[in-house]
Design a protein that fits this description.
Layout (H helix, E strand, L loop, with lengths): L3 E8 L6 H13 L4 E6 L14 H12 L5 E3 L12 H11 L3 E8 H4 L8 H7 L1 E5 L21 E3 L3 H7 L5 E5 L8 H9 L10 H9 L6
Parallel strand pairs: 1-2, 1-4, 2-3, 4-5, 5-7, 6-7
Helix pairs in contact: 2-8
The structure holds adenosine-5'-triphosphate and magnesium ion.
């Protein structure tokens, strides 16, 4: 397969943390991705509460977190629409924009285990390369349970970096990438803030500062 490799990394990023950043970095070099686009999901204003920061706040925090890394790029394609987007639609749009690139849709194994609940997930698997990263508390080995058995032969456990290039051919292909995943989640960070605990060193300093200046996630 020829072309630049672009990773698409979606999420709520409520807030973005070192678990996201480190996971993306490991996938970037293991799969030799040129760029990874971080795409926050839109959340309607009426859902905003002490637990869900506004789309703008989550966007601002992503921009701060990625500001010193040229390989990571924030993209506001979903929040700009001001309605809930489905991954399949975002991917189709990006495939048009990046028509001479190879697109990889990146997610953690916890998200992958729920893929059957996604809009047109069969179409998504059949047409896009998927990269599934390990995450503490979830087993990469369980990935095959998440999809119909016809995809079992399309799941590849990538143990060495060379295996990825050798295996890469055409979708459907689901690559399981074991990473040194950090045991950090946004939920945990939000709960720590509510309890008044320190969140230092769990996310970038400028994001931590933004959270406190804007009084996010407090009771
Ligand atoms: P929440 O607790 O609110 O669900 P989260 O930490 O799971 O937050 P999300 O925004 O839900 O973060 O995750 C976006 C994507 O990043 C998902 O595909 C998820 O699997 C992945 N991800 C998040 N944290 C990690 C981590 N520590 N290691 C590996 N992947 C992660
Ligand atoms: Mg999550």
């Amino acid at each position: 397969m020829k072309g630049k490799r672009i990773g698409i990394f979606g999420g709520t990023f409520n807030p973005i943390h070192f678990g996201h950043l480190r996971a993306a970095e490991e996938v970037r070099y293991k799969c030799q991705l040129e760029k990874i686009l971080f795409i926050p999901a839109y959340i309607p204003p009426h859902k905003n509460s002490s637990d869900i920061a506004s789309s703008k706040a989550r966007w601002d925090m992503i921009c701060l977190a990625l500001s010193n890394n040229d390989a990571f790029m924030p993209l506001d394609i979903e929040i700009k629409k001001e309605k809930i987007s489905y991954s399949i639609d975002t991917l189709k749009e990006l495939r048009n924009t990046y028509s001479d690139s190879i697109i990889f849709f990146i997610m953690g194994i916890d998200s992958f285990m729920e893929i059957k609940t996604w809009k047109n997930y069969i179409e998504l698997i059949e047409n896009y390369f998927l990269i599934v990263m390990s995450r503490p508390g979830f087993e990469l080995e369980n990935a095959k349970l998440a999809v119909p058995s016809k995809f079992s032969s399309k799941i590849f456990f990538i143990r060495k970096e060379e295996d990825f290039n050798r295996t890469l051919s055409a979708p459907p292909q689901i690559f399981l990438i074991p990473i040194k995943a950090l045991n950090i989640s946004s939920t945990e960070i939000r709960n720590m803030i509510k309890k008044g605990e320190s969140i230092k060193y769990l996310l970038p300093e400028n994001v931590e500062k933004y959270i406190f200046e804007n009084r996010l996630y407090q009771k």
